[in-house]
Task: structure prediction
Amino acid sequence: AQSVTQLGSHVSVSEGALVLLRCNYSSSVPPYLFWYVQYPNQGLQLLLKYTTGATLVKGINGFEAEFKKSETSFHLTKPSAHMSDAAEYFCAVSEQYGGSQGNLIFGKGTKLSVKP
Amino acid sequence: GAGVSQSPSNKVTEKGKDVELRCDPISGHTALYWYRQSLGQGLEFLIYFQGNSAPDKSGLPSDRFSAERTGGSVSTLTIQRTQQEDSAVYLCASSSSRTGGFSSYNEQFFGPGTRLTVL
Result:
């Protein structure tokens, strides 16, 4: 079965520092790939997605992620953290085949803290 | 408000009682998904509707859980004889069609969730 692994349940960075949140997936067939953000007591918001085409994808709030098929990875980065980036981040996949229901399979999440 | 709405936002119930959770998808969205977010299990997929039909109910955690969708719009998730382990945030998402498959990607838009607490 498809699975998603996020390394590090908690990541802490200083304001202005690089943010790197790691995500690996298990499928041998590249799925659709997503990063979602969840602020406290709120729903999930899509940050960015990879479906086809360019492997470096840019999302909202200055985040980007690179799909690396050889590494089965889709790590999320942001060059300079801002206090408002403090939230929980979820990597997710959706399988690409005709019978797929299209449901998302999520990683366990990484809680990002940003220190002033 | 054009987003996905869910009600109630919070629900506290006693063990053994039945609860109904409601999801109003974005108008015109044919695909609807239910997920559960809990401390122990993270985010889990529960069930998917295409129109009023749920082709696969195997994601529901037990036979106490059921869901329906009427008129291709509103969906209700019902939990009978609630247990403490049912305590979680129940999230609903809708998309213009199913997200994966050979069709083009269709983003899932999430509602704010219903926080269920079973005492």
Summary: The interface with chain B takes residues 31-32, 36, 42-46, 49, 51, 90, 92, 94-109 of chain A (CB under 8 Å). Chain A has a mean pLDDT of 91.
